[in-house]
Design goal:
It is a single chain. The chain is an alpha/beta fold and 429 residues long. It contains 16 helices and 13 strands. The protein has a six-stranded mixed sheet, sandwiched between helices. A hairpin with a 5-residue loop joins strand 1 and strand 2. Helix 9 crosses helix 10. The radius of gyration is 21 Å and the shape is globular. It starts with a strand and ends with a helix. Bound molecules: ligand F0G.
């Protein structure tokens, strides 16, 4: 046995090739690797050699993808079945102005918005669509706040599998809708919010023979683990003190916890960073649950400018609780104003991200101010999506549609003559 499906709640197991999203007991499933067998086979130098591009003939996605580089602990598959752009290998940035704004000596930013379709979803989708192809799925389906649908549309198009995406009408950013349409997905706009669309899709997948590729699907999370693998490898296998990420449906929080747990079990790292999951205050059911010591769990009616994380009933709650417990992590929330100001700072130093991603940076600033994070600690904030995803939110912030825009960069109108332009230039330089 190399890998099988295992219930995160009751530990029941199922074959890896069974189409199944939930356990009989209702618990969520993990891809469970045989860590004991893998432990002696895997060491840091194996992954370091692949990173340096050691030749592996006819295995192009396996060398060029920042996901498949870690294939033994993601999904062991034959190279020819892989559907890849390739994804991953994203940069880690830092900028002194941004670090000091956040209150840190150095704040590292892992930019997942620089994946092929502009978000971290590509890491999960290369694995999910590869598995869909192996299973012979006749169509792949997801509900989405936008990025998952963009990514699914692209990878399904690459694989030649029809994609059907369910999105909340009027609540997804323009860039993401454009991608779903452009990549040829059947795009169904659902009355209601993401949570309504998610409920509908779960029923569709139970009753119609189509393959679900929301993060409920365990293969998606396997790919998303590679964000953590790359961060840790990027720091020469010395894990940072904190990894801070935005949280909506909680798939990524769950994946990060599983990745850190496995790295430690495999002896590839000797300690775990702490995970800090950051929610938008208007969409913070996980934060509310955290405040009760995870004793309570209730859905909320979600509202936030960060439409990617406008989610009131996150699907991966249980697996995310496990991640916070494993890593001695925490959950916090930030307001829309804090999110948009953080975004303006990330954008303004030339890096750029979409609103949901900026929640991570706003979260770091808040946790430093509260004394939870020390300025000299090594902290990586994950920027989950690209600046170009949500032009509406960005332009709105800078053109006065946003009341408390601290760092608004208003466009100026000039008449078409040199004198006018001279006045503007002398004003700014
Ligand atoms: N950041 C961005 C840019 C996202 O698109 C998402 C989720 C998240 C953060 C939150 O990640 O759900 O794993 O906690 N987007 C999903 C979607 C829901 O449909 O694209 P999560």
């Amino acid at each position: 046995m190399i890998a099988q499906l295992e219930c995160a709640r009751c530990a029941a197991v199922y074959p890896i090739d069974q189409v199944r999203y939930l356990c009989r007991c209702g618990g969520m499933l993990d891809v469970s690797h045989d860590l004991e067998t893998l432990r002696p086979q895997l060491d840091r130098s194996l992954f370091d050699e692949r990173l340096r591009g050691a030749p592996e003939p006819q295995t192009q996605p396996m060398t060029d993808s920042g996901v498949w580089r870690y294939r033994e602990i993601i999904l062991p598959v034959a190279p020819e079945s892989i559907v890849s752009r390739p994804e991953g290998n994203t940069p880690i940035y830092q900028h002194p102005r941004l670090s000091s704004w956040a209150g840190m000596d150095v704040l590292y930013l892992k930019h997942e918005g620089e994946n092929p379709t502009g978000s971290f979803k590509d890491r999960g989708m290369t694995v999910g669509v590869t598995q869909a192809k192996r299973l012979g799925a006749r169509a792949v389906v997801c509900a989405s706040t936008g990025n998952t649908s963009a990514s699914l549309a692209a990878y399904a198009a690459l694989a030649g599998i029809p994609a059907i995406v369910f999105i909340p009408t009027g609540k997804i950013a323009a860039g993401k809708l454009a991608q779903a349409l452009a990549y040829g997905a059947h795009t169904l706009q659902v009355d209601g919010d993401f949570d309504d669309a998610m409920r509908l899709v779960r029923r569709v997948c139970d009753e119609l023979d189509v393959y679900l590729l929301n993060s409920l699907n365990p293969f998606r999370l396997e790919g998303q683990k590679s964000i953590v693998f790359e961060i840790v490898q990027g720091f020469r296998w010395q894990p940072p003190d904190w990894i801070v990420l935005p949280a909506g449906n909680l798939g990524n929080t769950a994946a990060f916890g599983k990745a850190l747990y496995e790295l430690k079990q495999l002896g590839l790292t000797d300690r775990m960073p702490r995970i800090a999951s950051v929610q938008a205050a208007g969409a913070s059911p996980f934060f509310q649950s955290y405040r009760s010591g995870f004793e309570t769990r209730s859905a909320v009616q979600a509202e936030t400018i960060a439409t990617a994380i406008r989610i009131g009933a996150p699907v991966s709650h249980e697996r995310a609780v496990r991640a916070i417990r494993w890593t001695d992590g925490l959950v916090t929330q930030v307001s829309d104003g804090e999110i948009m100001d953080a975004k303006a700072m990330v954008d303004g130093v030339g890096i750029g991200c979409e609103p949901a991603s900026a929640a991570a940076v706003a979260g770091v600033r808040k946790l430093v101010a509260e004394g939870m994070i020390r300025p000299d600690q090594r902290v990586v904030a994950v920027l989950t999506g690209n600046l170009l995803k949500d032009p509406g939110a960005t332009v709105g912030y800078h053109t006065g549609q946003w009341e408390d825009a601290t760092y608004a960069n208003r466009p100026q109108s000039v008449a078409g003559n040199l004198e006018d332009v001279r006045r503007v230039i002398e004003d700014v330089v």
